[in-house]
Amino acid sequence: DAGVTQSPTHLIKTRGQQVTLRCSPISGHKSVSWYQQVLGQGPQFIFQYYEKEERGRGNFPDRFSARQFPNYSSELNVNALLLGDSALYLCASSLGEQSTDTQYFGPGTRLTVL
Amino acid sequence: GIQVEQSPPDLILQEGANSTLRCNFSDSVNNLQWFHQNPWGQLINLFYIPSGTKQNGRLSATTVATERYSLLYISSSQTTDSGVYFCAVVGYNFNKFYFGSGTKLNVKP
């Protein structure tokens, strides 16, 4: 079975632009979470979606938004990009929304903001 | 939120050596996973271990939930074990992972 997939792999944007990152969960998984990992740190939680509804939000500004589609894939949008948004963005999927569910991560999208 | 501390932050080993990585967490957890992040950024699942002991080849892990810590053991290390090891936890009242800052392992041939 295919794992979690993310696109694009790499992205270069300039300050003020907008970006959309995409994630497809493992087949059968209904929950998708997004994380931001800046260099040298552990990933930080941004959003969780389950059955197309937002189930959790981390401490990120409103410039960050996400949505989940009927096929359980998800998009993360970031508006008005800042240099500090440069990071590896990771998507994780799990069967459900229970805290005991095992999370599986995709390969990430590396975003560079110039 | 839950505080997660990993130690040591950096570890250099000769190939064949054994090592122990530690993860301390500040509250009761419902989920604890160990990951290995490869040089390309992919987080590889190693163990789902909110309590007890598990082994997978040269790797094993133990979580003592009542004392709020977990240990990852790597035996007979290989150069391919190099990378960053993360511990991540989920609390009973939360639905998100809290990650530690990781242990960066460098195994030299």
Written overview of the protein:
The complex is a heterodimer of chains A (114) and B (109). Chain A has no helices and 11 strands. With 114 residues, chain A is an all-beta fold. In chain A, the strands form 2 sheets. In chain A, strands 2, 4, 5, 6, 9, 10 and 11 form a 7-stranded mixed β-sheet that branches. A 4-stranded antiparallel β-sheet of chain A has the order 1-3-8-7, with no helix packed on it. In chain A, strand 5 and strand 6 form a beta hairpin. Chain B is an all-beta fold. Classes of the chains: A mainly beta (114), B mainly beta (109). The interface between A and B is medium-sized, with 28 and 26 residues.
Number of helices of chain A: 0
Span between termini of chain B = 40 Å
Helix content of chain B: under 10%
Name the chain pair with the biggest interface and residue counts per chain: A-B, 28 and 26 residues
Average of the residue pLDDT scores of chain B? 94
Number of strands of chain A: 11
Topology summary:
The complex is a heterodimer of chains A (114) and B (109).
Chain A: E1 5-7, E2 10-13, E3 19-24, E4 31-37, E5 44-50, E6 53-57, E7 64-68, E8 74-78, E9 87-94, E10 104-105, E11 109-113
Parallel strand pairs in A: 2-11
Antiparallel strand pairs in A: 1-3, 3-8, 4-5, 4-9, 5-6, 7-8, 9-10, 9-11
Chain B: E1 4-7, E2 10-14, E3 19-25, E4 29-37, E5 43-48, E6 52-56, E7 59-64, E8 69-74, E9 83-91, E10 98-99, E11 103-108
Parallel strand pairs in B: 2-11
Antiparallel strand pairs in B: 1-3, 3-8, 4-5, 4-9, 6-7, 7-8, 9-10, 9-11
